[in-house]
Design a protein that fits this description.
Blueprint: E1 10-12, H1 18-26, E2 31-33, H2 44-54, E3 57-59, H3 63-71
Length: about 70
Amino acid sequence: MAAEELFVSLYLDADVERVIAKALRRRGCTCYAADEVGMKRASDEAQLEYAARMGYALVTYNVEHFAPLHVR
């Protein structure tokens, strides 16, 4: 699937480097990084709530903390 066909906006939490958001945008993806929207120091739960409220798919490397939030 080409980047321009991506049907969802991505939200990269604080564990994902901002450079990845920039690279994804260069490829046509709608993508936001936590530090770009003032959420760099927010809790994991706040990150997930923000992504859900905005309608973004959350991208994280932090499975250990987000898996329990998903189950809850």
